[in-house]
Amino acid sequence: MRAALASDDWFGACPAELQDALLARSRLHRLSHGESLFARGGQASGLCCVTAGALSIGAVSAEGQPAVLAYLEPYQWFGEISMIDELPRTHDAVADGDTQVLEVPRAGLLAWLETHPTMWRELARLACRKLRVAFAVLEELAQLPLEERIRQRLWLLAQGYGSRDAPRRRIRLGQEVLAHMLGVSRQSVNKALKTLEARGVVRLHYGEIELL
Fold it and tell me: What region holds the HTH crp-type domain (predicted)?
């Protein structure tokens, strides 16, 4: 497990002392497809990492429209914002397929950080990585046509939002989820993907998108 977790840039760069503390205090949650890990507005329970399957992070509007903020796969960490600001969860986290999540309970981790205050910098580093991604997405929304937005979002997913040294070439992602990420219709995403396929940028498979 430690070697697998170290494939994530953030965890791999953490001091061994912090890695030990996270592993020693962790517990494993198993979720079935569609099961919720936590809901928007809920109390933060701790720092988490997907170890199998995937989590869709998002929310549903008052009109019932789903929006997907992120799609997390192994071995991506999340939950650091609520660890820092102690505010409730900002979005829902729902399993896509059979999923396993490693959770480091908040109380135990906070107690350890009280005696190792310099390690807060590592959590801030994780939060800053997400902030950089958020700024890039905002710029993308403001400036780029849909085909380019899709291409850049797929590249972001392939890199695990900056957590992987070696990007994946095949992304297990439905077009409906991609549409919810971009705030457009599935038909628009399908049309744009076929344009990208004709340009030799991607190859479409059932339930997967291959980056060429």
Answer: 144-212
Nearest to 202 by CA among 152, 137, 161, 162: 152
What the chain holds in terms of domains, given with CATH numbers, is 2-130 (2.60.120.10), 146-211 (1.10.10.10)
Q: Check: CB of residue 112 under 8 Å from CB of residue 22.
A: no
Amino acid at 184: V
DSSP codes, 112-178:
HHHH-GGGHHHHHHHHHHHHHHHHHHHHHHHH--HHHHHHHHHHHHHTTTTT-SS--SEEE--HHHH
CA distance 198 to 194: 6
